[in-house]
Structure formats: structure tokens, C-alpha cells
Backbone:
């Protein structure tokens, strides 16, 4: 008999009603529990149940998913969303079990042999403060790029080193949850110009970084979707272990002086 690890149980729902505060994703889900909130929770329950790790290995993931803190919750959601995306695309991949030392979240075998670390750009503290003061928030691509640099310079070194130590490409899958994500701002082109244009941002990153996959997402009627039109893969020409061009061909492709190829897919959004 296969053991299951309960998630979003009746006890959790009671705690969410009592403890989640305004602005928490959990409060929004409870408020719409008869409609979109139920769809959202049911989707995560299904993904979590199918996620190919043992009950013990998924305990930490469950804690993050059930957290009332948006940043912690979204970190778990994005791991599951990335897994759902790879399954939908027909890729061969496996999540790596958590260990005491940092390592990437997934190993991808096909269409390319590499390690993938999933990360999230959340709403910045600056924007949160302005929201709380009921002030407007400016569209600032430069600030978003600065935060991308911070992730690659300070936060993800160990995961990228793990990939290099195994002589495989190290890839960062970056989900954008910043204030202006989902508004059609075409940030993916600004990021491409920074990484491969005149500034050539890739030269500032470690050669262990083989590629960045930028993902724009939205939640509509309780369902999670990724934009194929505004998501992209950026290949580091200085990578110690190059990531093959054309991988994830359904997303926009960027390499060498901002040469780009539009997505091969006619779907604007891929529903997970």
C-alpha cells in the first residue's frame, strides 16, 4: 500500500481561515474556496501526489506549499509547475531529493542532459512597502535585472557548482512574480539585451551558468499557465558546459549578440 502525505487537509483549511492575513495567497484561496480557490488547491494536490519523490522526501515541499507566506508558498508551487511543464512537453527528467548540502532541483536527461535549479523573482520589498502605503509602483526593468544579478551572484552558486562538478550544464529556471509580470511588458527582450547585447551581462556571471530560462506565469480562474510568447531561453556563450541551442524550442531563444528565434509554438499560453 502506497502511503500518501496529506496536503491542504481539513485541519490546514481551518488554520488558514483563522491565521492567514490579508494579502496572503491562502486568504484569497479560502475566500474563493467554492470556485477558483478549490481549482487551485486541487491542482496543487494532484501535482504534489504525482511528484516522484518519497513521502519523507516531500515533507519539506509540503511545508512550503502550505505556508501562508507568499514567498515560501510560491517557491514550492514553482517547483511543481516546472515539473508539470516538463511532463507536458514530453521531457525526461527527475527531481533530486533534498540533502543537507545545496544542489539543483532537477536533473533533465532529454532533450538535454543538464541540471536545473528553479528560482523565483517575488514582488520586491520596495514594491510591497509602496503597496502598503497605497502608492503607485513604477515599471523598472533595471531593478528587476539587478535582482536577477543578485540571484546568480549570491544565491545560486552552490547549485551551479554542483552541475559543473558533475560535468553537466547548470541551468536556472526563473519564474517571474514581480509586480509587472503578466502585464505584457516584454521584459524577456530587455533581459536578452542585457545578457547578450552591448552590456553582455553573461560575462559577469560564473561560467558554471550554462543558460537562463525566464518564465512569465499567470493564474487565471484557479489554473496556472506559462506564456510561450514572453518566456525565453538565454544561452551563455562563455559557459564551461554549453547548453545546446534549440533546447526548449517552444520558448523564445536568445544567443550570440541578441540573435533570437521566436517560439515554435502557436500557443500563446501553455496551461499546466
Residues:
Amino acid at each position: 500500500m502506497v502511503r500518501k502525505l496529506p496536503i491542504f487537509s481539513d485541519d490546514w483549511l481551518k488554520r488558514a481561515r483563522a491565521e492567514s492575513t490579508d494579502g496572503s495567497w491562502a486568504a484569497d484561496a479560502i475566500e474563493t474556496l467554492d470556485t477558483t480557490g478549490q481549482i487551485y488547491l486541487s491542482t496543487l494536490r494532484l501535482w504534489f501526489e504525482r511528484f516522484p519523490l518519497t513521502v519523507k522526501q516531500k515533507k519539506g515541499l509540503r511545508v512550503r506549499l502550505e505556508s501562508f507566506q507568499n514567498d515560501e508558498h510560491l517557491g514550492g508551487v514553482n517547483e511543481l509547475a516546472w515539473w508539470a511543464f516538463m511532463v507536458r512537453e514530453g521531457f525526461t527528467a527527475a527531481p533530486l531529493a533534498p540533502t543537507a548540502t545545496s544542489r539543483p532541483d532537477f536533473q533533465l536527461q532529454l532533450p538535454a542532459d543538464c541540471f536545473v535549479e528553479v528560482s523565483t523573482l517575488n514582488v520586491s520589498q520596495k514594491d510591497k512597502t509602496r503597496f502598503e502605503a497605497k502608492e503607485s509602483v513604477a515599471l523598472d526593468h533595471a531593478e528587476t535585472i539587478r535582482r536577477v544579478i543578485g540571484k546568480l551572484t549570491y544565491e545560486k552558486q552552490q547549485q551551479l557548482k554542483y552541475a559543473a562538478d558533475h560535468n553537466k550544464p547548470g541551468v536556472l529556471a526563473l519564474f517571474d512574480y514581480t509586480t509587472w509580470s503578466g502585464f505584457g511588458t516584454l521584459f524577456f527582450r530587455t533581459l536578452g539585451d542585457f545578457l547578450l547585447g552591448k552590456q553582455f551581462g553573461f560575462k559577469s556571471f560564473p561560467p558554471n551558468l550554462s543558460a537562463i530560462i525566464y518564465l512569465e506565469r499567470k493564474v487565471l480562474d484557479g489554473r496556472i499557465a506559462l506564456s510561450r510568447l514572453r518566456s525565453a531561453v538565454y544561452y551563455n556563450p562563455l559557459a564551461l558546459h554549453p547548453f545546446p541551442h534549440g533546447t526548449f524550442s517552444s520558448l523564445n531563444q536568445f544567443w550570440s549578440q541578441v540573435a533570437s528565434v521566436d517560439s515554435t509554438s502557436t500557443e500563446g499560453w501553455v496551461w499546466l
Observations:
- The CA atoms of residues 160 and 200 lie 20 Å apart.
